[in-house]
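Sample entry (250 residues):
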Amino acid sequence: MTEDGQYIYAIVAASEERGFGSIGIGGRNDEVSIVCYEDIGAVISPSPIVKYAVTRANTIAHQKVMEEVMKYYPILPVRFGTIGEGIELIKEKILRARYDEIKELLRYIEDKIELGLKSLWLNMQGIYKEIIDENREIRSLRDRIMSKAIKRQRDQVRLGEMVKENLDAKRMQDEKAILDPLKELWVKHRSNNVFGDQMVTNGSFLIPKDREKKFDEMVDKLSTMYDGRMKFKYVGPVPPCNFIEIAVTW
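Predicted structure, serialized as tokens:
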């Protein structure tokens, strides 16, 4: 029989224990609650002491709990898959032992939110045409390849490399044009991985709460400015996982 522990989602500024419903990770409908030490608390739910696979279902469950809790409290995300073997151990080894560190981080994050912004080119054929039109060497090599009955692999590989280099340069240019108007609004920015040729930028932004409206307005302006060239995916506020993550060692 697998021993039970407590899955830990986050640390919050809370002095009273409370529940959030049966929304725990693992599909068992476990109750999520806060256990407190003085004026800080750990957000937990009952859990077997197992290694959780990084699946879509598990990561979404972890995220949804944090999103629910952050409606009410400043939140410090805890690393995915963290499990404590008993509530008293969690209070002693995390809340009590790291109290000063946690309080400092909570003070830092209490007036800030995380927002996410992705942008994607809408018409890749148009982007490739721009690259060819702007680069005489690419255009000349393409024309030579097209004029020959037998295509040399070396030329085709070189053409692909040149197009890739210029696509990356164009991506950097467009990303800079998007980020420059936002720079005065963020406290921290993180560039996340981009996926595929179409994605231009994939950024996370830590901003003061009182700048959220200005950030929203600037994203709206960018969407209008690049309408027809790019589409934007804008999310938040979300838990500040890209900027703070509590790692626990027992």
